[in-house]
Write a structure and sequence with these properties.
Layout lengths: L3 H6 L2 H9 L21 E8 L9 H6 L4 E3 L7 E8 L3 H11 L11 E6 L7 H21 L4 E6 L7 H7 L10 E4 L19 E5 L4 H12 L3 E6 L4 H11 L2 E4 L7 H8 L5 E6 L14 H24 L3 E10 L2 H5 L5 H25 L2 E7 L5 H4 L3 H9 L9 H12 L10 E4 L8
Parallel strand pairs: 1-2, 1-3, 3-4, 4-5, 5-6, 7-8, 7-10, 8-9, 10-11, 11-12, 12-13
The structure holds nicotinamide-adenine-dinucleotide.
The site of nicotinamide-adenine-dinucleotide has 27 residues, from helix 7 and helix 13.
């Protein structure tokens, strides 16, 4: 269902009227399109403290490769990258304020503010305090900056391991990711031969691909060069065939809760196995716990969590996922924040986050496979179109960007996590929610 309010505020009379009434003014976000695949303009590179990322092959070299014009001063930057990895005490923390205070107003609409921080694993409690302080700073700036600008904190030690992440965040692909703290390990990464086709020669399986977010994920991975295997229930076979056909992929009509689902997926894969596994299929059966019969509890846990555990285990134990593979599961902000009427759904989605946290280190150590999750907020799909009008309208507006996300926003985030150069991103649950006020 279209967001008519966003369309209305995009017109001159709509803007005039809603301003006069003091109503929210969401900005139409700049998203990826084949005609406008990247931002153009200036990237303002600032720093606070003495950065360990400086050096000939350090952060400056990575930023220069994004295609933006990197400057130490800019009147109208499309993005600001503030390197705060060298913030170790109250005085260097004050440099964060001093650097950003004069420039926040000049950032272009739908632009980016990215703060780089150090990992929190220091024993120095002064450094730990001021590095943690960056989280409150970033989340607050995200809530107040407006004009469709997103604000993100990246914790890193190696700028090269963060290149795929910086490219994602410094592009229109990350339009609906804001208020997030993302940690990047120091993995060995190899740049793809072609950054526009990072998944060329790779195979991806997407569950729940007949419509909604899953369809967008399959399309985005195919755009990035992957051969896609699209899986959905037999009842959606017609839509599934149409999606797979359009993307030059294959359709696998299968209920993911079937006990032999893992074996049937393995049988349908090419002999060289799978590179990217996206657990997207999901259902809701909402009721408050007091009214929730077991018939509403079990299917939600089965589709959203048990089948994710079963198929992951089946593929990992049979070697169905190749070395360097990527698992991306779908959580939800409801699982992180809790939501009335969704004890079943939130339990299943919080469970996905638990699976990611526990499996990520071992999968990386044993198979070179990363395990992450996306946690969508309010995304415009058939699932949310079924939500009653008042709750739907609240869901759309209760975030820093004042609008719902689109399936493609979750898909782009999934594609970044699936990227061969994203090996340093592991065990993360990244919210795609426009910095929803729920569980923020
Ligand atoms: N839309 C949102 O706002 C939102 C928010 C948070 C999380 N999510 C999650 O994102 C994922 C996709 O959501 P969506 O909005 O696109 O939903 P959707 O209902 O539009 O699509 C879900 C797809 O999963 C398929 N599916 C369901 N059960 C299956 C099964 N047993 N086996 C195989 N396929 C099955 C459905 O047939 C459907 O095609 C879900 O995991 C959902 O929980 C969505």
């Amino acid at each position: 269902m279209a967001d008519r309010y966003l369309s209305f505020t995009g017109t001159a009379p709509g803007r005039f009227l809603t301003r006069r009434l003091g109503l929210p003014q969401p900005t139409a976000l700049h998203r990826w399109s084949a005609e406008h695949p990247s931002f153009t303009g200036e990237l303002l590179h600032l720093s606070a403290g003495k950065s360990p990322l400086d050096g000939p092959d350090g952060l400056a070299a990575v930023l220069a490769r994004t295609g933006l014009a990197v400057r130490a001063r800019s009147e109208r930057p499309v993005a600001v990258v503030l390197d705060a990895t060298g913030v170790t005490d109250i005085d260097t923390l004050a440099e964060v304020h001093a650097a950003l205070h004069p420039v926040v107003r000049s950032v272009a609409r739908s632009g980016r503010v990215i703060v780089l921080g150090a990992p929190l694993d220091t024993a120095d409690h002064h450094q730990a305090a001021v590095q943690q302080a960056l989280e409150g700073f970033v989340r607050s700036l995200g809530k107040e900056i407006g004009r469709g600008i997103t604000v993100t904190l990246l914790r890193l030690t190696d700028a090269n391991a963060a290149e795929s992440t910086l490219r994602f965040l410094l592009s229109p692909k990350s339009a609906y990711v804001s208020g997030q703290v993302i940690g990047i390990g120091g993995a060995e990464v190899t740049a793809p031969a072609d950054w526009a086709l990072p998944l060329a020669g790779r195979t991806a399986l997407v569950t729940g691909a007949a419509r909604g977010i899953g369809e967008a994920v399959a399309a985005t991975l195919a755009r990035d060069g992957a051969r896609v295997v699209c899986l959905d229930v037999p009842g959606a076979a017609v839509e599934l065939e149409s999606v797979a056909g359009r993307l030059g992929g294959t359709a696998l009509a299968l209920d993911i809760t079937a006990p032999d689902a893992g074996a049937r997926i393995l049988a349908a894969l090419p002999s060289d196995g799978l590179d990217v596994l996206v657990h997207n299929a999901g259902i809701t059966r909402d009721r408050r716990l007091v009214n929730m019969a077991a018939e509403r509890w079990s299917p939600v846990l089965d589709v959203n969590l048990a089948s994710v555990l079963r198929t992951t285990d089946a593929l990992l134990s049979a070697g169905g996922l190749r070395t360097g593979g990527r698992i991306v599961a779908t959580a939800s902000i409801a699982g992180l924040a809790g939501n009335a009427g969704q004890t079943n759904y939130a339990a299943s989605k919080a469970g996905v986050a638990g699976l990611v946290r526990a499996l990520a280190p071992t999968a990386a150590a044993e198979h070179g496979i990363t395990v992450n999750a996306v946690a969508p907020g309010f995304i415009e799909t058939k699932m949310t179109a079924a939500v009653p009008l008042f709750i739907r309208e609240a869901g759309r507006r209760m975030n820093s960007l004042g609008q719902g996300g689109l399936p493609v926003d979750v898909a782009e985030t999934t594609a970044w996590l699936a990227h061969p150069a994203s090996g340093g991103v592991n065990g993360q649950v990244v919210r795609v929610c426009g910095q929803s006020l729920l569980g923020a």
